[in-house]
Amino acid sequence: MRMKPFATAIERAAGDRLAVVRLKNRYHGWNGEEQTPLVDARWALDQIRARYAGLPIALIGHSMGGRVATHLAGEPGVTTIVGLAPWVVEGDLRWGRPGLNVLLMHGVKDRTTDPQHTERLAEELRAQGADVTWRPIEGEIHGMLRHARMWHRDVADFVVASLLRPELTQ
């Protein structure tokens, strides 16, 4: 439910120029080596690539969903990732590369996931060639509720600008 307002904001900002798809995971949690959110997200990516072949894909996720997005940044067609207070785990693979647009936002008062880990992730992805925007949000905690409209607007603007770049739409 937390991601529904982001989907709505992107739909409004994009008009009929983008398709927005939301994924509801089958299970809660990362589930150790099974990594069930990655299984579900890869299935969804396969469906999206089949339906919208050749079009750029943005992945947007909060907390564990942000971890999923960073894991799948190297998947074919993925050109944009947005991590919102992402769960960053040392040792996870990083898929930064030229041509990848990344927005990482994190409330500086978050005690569920660590904004300093997110800042380090931004640095790592940037060092690998990704175009990274790092936005620490003053006064915000994990729930992204204090400045909700700003989160929704900024994510929508970033995703629309990233996916509708001329080099991706020609």
UniProtKB/TrEMBL annotation:
GO terms for molecular function: serine-type peptidase activity. Residues 38-88 form the Serine aminopeptidase S33 domain. Signal peptide: none annotated. Residues 101-161 form the Peptidase S9 prolyl oligopeptidase catalytic domain. One of its GO terms (biological process) is proteolysis. This is Alpha/beta hydrolase. It comes from Knoellia sinensis KCTC 19936.
